[in-house]
Amino acid sequence: MNEIAVAGGGLIGLAVAWRCAQRGLSVTVVDEAPGTGASFAAAGMLAPVTEAAYGEEPLLRLCRASLQRYPGFAAELAQASGVEVGLRTAGTLVVGFDEDDMGALSALHTFQQELGLDAERLTGRESRRREPSLTPRVRGGLHVPGDHSVDPRALHRALLAAAAAAGVRMVRARAEAVRVENGRASGLRLAGGEELDGDVVVLALGAHSASLPGVPPLPVRPVKGQILRLRGAAGLLDGTVRALVRGRQVYLVPYAGDRLVVGATVEDRGFDTTVTAGGVHDLLHDAIDVVPGVSELELVETLARWRPGSPDNAPVLGPSDLPGLVLATGHYRNGVLLAPVTGEAIAELLVAGTLPELAAPFTVDRFRR
Q: Which pathway does the database say it acts in (predicted)?
């Protein structure tokens, strides 16, 4: 096996391509507009502890393992590309406003303690001591020192440059179908009719993965998220703030000096591109409730993109039902976080023939059990 064709030039596709090229494989990535999908909208939270949920313990282990790789991953990328990825290690603060919010935070903290995760329960005053710009109406919070963030757009630029330096070829075209010969994936057919050979095809098209002709049935769907970017936030927040505002979730993630990301809605509306007045209103209303100073910032961008959701909110990794087609999709809310471990796992599969033990629970076979 020498020729690898990767469908998708987002964070996952490029992480896979980079790691494969480092292992001596010949890699071509196909994407008509790399970096304009989910990663373009993502806030860049690296937050396995604050995202921990009952029944998702294997996903938590995968996410924590990827987070542990991030400092080395970011440093290696910076050296290979000359691009700093904006890794921010100030931790995450989760806050609540009313009794229901505090009950939800208590349940989350209990679960975190059961798993031995590092999270500290704070009063409202202690929360404001950590982030003085918080409203005095905050009732309490959880501080998670190990949940960080990164700038996804800078991360994509770094991966694109590092992959190119490692010999990855980028074809800026739309993948129109997986080419199948003798019951096996043999490459990609591109828009316009050109064909690209591949001993193995890696499917990393995010929310579009299931709709590529030639791909066997795959339980990956688009989950819309609307997100805002603001300017003028220098000094407003030290780390990420996540909040429950009367049961509704909002997050505020500082990046790039004076920028702030506010997000994000969760909508099962297919590939709807609409940024709605209601979505923007709710995000701004809740963000200002949490940090009143947000009202003074300049709103510079509103956009909607689609997370690649799966039935259990976990990625789909490894061999597919079509020989020669390898899956690297379905990362839902964790695409940025899981880029390092996904790149390593798929490269290991292609070189050694088996998925690492950490990634083994996430094959498509689990949906048939």
A: Cofactor biosynthesis; thiamine diphosphate biosynthesis
Beta-carbon contacts of 119 under 8 Å, excluding residues fewer than 6 positions away, are 49, 50, 109, 112, 113, 142, 143, 144
Residue 26 has pLDDT above 80, yes or no: yes
Q: What percent of the chain has pLDDT over 70?
A: 99
- Give per-residue pLDDT as tens, 311-323: 999 999 999 999 9
Tokens 């396995």: give the residue: 48
- The Cα 66–Cα 342 span in angstroms is 8
Residue 257: the pLDDT is: 86
d(CA 42, CA 57): 23
Q: Mean per-residue pLDDT for 283-310?
A: 97
Distances from the Cα of 91 to the Cα of 45, 97, 153, angstroms: 10, 20, 20
Rounded to whole angstroms, how far apart are CA atoms 314 and 199?
27
Residues in a beta bridge with 259: 231, 255
Q: Do residues 92 and 45 lie in contact, with contact meaning Cβ atoms separated by under 8 Å?
A: yes
Tell me the CB-side half-sphere exposure of residue 27, using CA atoms within 13 A.
Answer: 30
What mean pLDDT do residues 156-178 have? 98
CATH superfamily label, 3-75+152-219+311-367: FAD/NAD(P)-binding domain (3.50.50.60)
Pairwise CA distance, residues 204 & 209, whole Å = 7
Nearest-angstrom CA–CA distance, 94 and 244: 8
Residue pair 172/29 in contact (Cβ under 8 Å)? The answer is no
Of the CATH numbers 3.30.9.10, 3.60.15.10, 3.20.20.370, 3.30.450.40, which one belongs to the domain with range 92-145+222-309? 3.30.9.10
User: Is the pTM of the predicted complex or chain greater than 0.85?
Assistant: yes
* Mean pLDDT in residue range 355-369: 93
Whether 369 has a pLDDT exceeding 80, the answer reads no
